[in-house]
Every structure is written in C-alpha cells, then in structure tokens.
C-alpha cells in the first residue's frame, strides 16, 4: 500500500468527523427551535453556527499546510503533534463556546492551540521554501 499522505489523511478524517458532528448539532437546534434560515431568536443556534463557521474558516488552511508539510518530508512525530493539537484545539473551542459565550479556559485553549498550529505550520513551509531557494 502506498503510504503517501497517510498522516494527513488521518487528521483530515478525524476533523471531518468533528465537522460532521458540528453540522448535526446545527440541524438538531434548527429542528428544536423551528428555524429554517438564519438563527432566529435562538442563542444556542447562533453559537452553534459560529462554532461551525469558525471551524470552516481555520481548519481547511491548516489541513492544506499539513499536506504540504507531509509532501516535503516533515517528520511523522511533528505531523502527528500538529494534527492532534489541531483536533484537540477545535474540540476545546467548540466545548468552550457551547458552555459559555464569554471567555473560558476551553475556548482559550482552542484559539491559542489553533493559532499555534497555524504559526508553526507557516514557519515550517516558509522555512522549507527559503532553504530550497538558497
């Protein structure tokens, strides 16, 4: 079996399952609160839509960077560390916002974890570019 992008595929799959769960939660809240479009007056639905939207805003870029890193030969340990950190960060972000729309430890872990992963990934791919260009 070709082992190309196996690590990226694992985290893409796990994050897709999380995205699916976030989507199902929105559907559940739409049914519960009888809201077809938008968020109506439902605070829970407003929060769920933002959790889902925030995921959709950050995760695709991180997955693209993870694939690029794997294609450039990043170590398995680094790829797993970044993929796992992103997954944990996104779970924490969702839990933190679900429990409180204000500041919370889980939301803070989610935001800082996501940003740390993206910054490390950006540094890695820029470093590979600079190293290859010299």
UniProtKB/TrEMBL annotation:
Matching SUPFAM superfamilies: MAPEG domain-like
Gene Ontology cellular-component terms listed: membrane
Keywords: Membrane, Transmembrane, Transmembrane helix
Stretches that traverse the bilayer: 6-27, 47-68, 74-97, 109-130
Subcellular location: Membrane
Cited InterPro entries: MAPEG-like_dom_sf, Membr-assoc_MAPEG
Name this protein carries in UniProt: Glutathione S-transferase
